[in-house]
Amino acid sequence: MRDAFEVRHADAAGRIGELRVPRAGATVETPAILPVVNPNLVTVEPRRLADEFGVEMLITNAYIVHSTPDLRERALDEGLHAMLEFPGAVMTDSGSFQLAEYGGIDTTTREILAFQRDIGSDVATPVDVPTPPDASRERTLDDLRTTEAALADAEAVDTGEMLVSAPVQGSTHLDLREWAARHAYGTTLDIFPVGAVVPLLNDYRYDDMVDVVAAAKRGLSRDCPVHLFGAGHPMMFALAVAVGCDLFDSAAYALYARDDRYLTVRGTELLDELEYFPCTCPICTDHTPDELRGLDDDTRQDLLARHNLQVTYGEIRTVRQAIRAGNLLELVDSRARGHPAMLDGYRALLDHA
Fold first, then answer.
1. What is the mean pLDDT of residues 97-124?
2. Separation between Cα atoms, residue 84 and residue 42, nearest integer Å
3. pLDDT category, 99, cuts 50, 70, 90?
4. Share of the chain above pLDDT 90, in %
5. How many Cβ atoms from other residues are within 10 Å of residue 273's Cβ?
6. Of the residues 11, 93, 333, 344, which is catalytic?
7. What is the pLDDT of residues 121-169, one digit of tens each?
């Protein structure tokens, strides 16, 4: 469904676009961040994500739902949107993360795509193989062949109006990333996630992230919505958008809150080390760090997660405005000064200009 994405404004390789999600009857403005919702461990209720933060689209894991008997029954009976109580578009992952973490899962692309269709997912994902950074060329090629077969299986499933992702893998071999992107674009699938970048981001290898995304973009067309899988720290949104990413997803807002970590556009702070909140969101204006430290665990985690969402969505709006104003690279330059590894990423971006 290649007419699902339309670019409205552009600056550098960043763009404001509209992603039409026909099964949800919704249009999602990009760049957009999709909060990850674990149906077994909900930190901020999906309904509140929509009402409080204006979230238009979230992502959950279909494999977790599929492999948890009570969730599976509820999702098949009620539908995913009713089960989550979320009015917007819902994307589902396939279990590829579990495959990468644990080495195997008990489902196939055809089975999990049919399940995603049956529970009412709006955007589905096949079972690709996320090859980690710095893997050997031989392993990367083997994994790409498996992913290529998964994309073929995805094309064979009757998905109706449900959009389907075509993940782009290839580890840190840039020619293989470009080849994988060309192959993905040659399918009939709809959204193009660049996968297995989380280890790069965790190690602050922003220059390698930029190179990987730029290689994938060379294999895709301008009409392709590009999703940076697992990326959700606000400090890197401007850089990732400037190199051409449209969608992000992350559970960082919740995971960091459970560890008493506080997100900013310049990095992450520990709640125990803060005397003042450097933010004007409702959470930070109504509470002091000392007050938050004195709350019970559940209340503190809820408030920190809500702050983390506030700063996350605030940065997405800042990036969109920079694109509209034509000064996205100025914003990237400003953000890059907050961390030396971000400056490496900015320099890599300029090398691709």
1. 85
2. 10
3. low
4. 92
5. 9
6. 93
7. 999 999 999 999 999 999 999 999 999 999 999 999 999 999 999 999 9
Q: Examine the pLDDT at 10 and tell me if it is beyond 60.
A: yes
Q: What's the token pair of residue 204? A: 């602050």
Does the annotation mark 298 as catalytic? no
Contacts of 156 (CB under 8 A, 6+ apart): 110
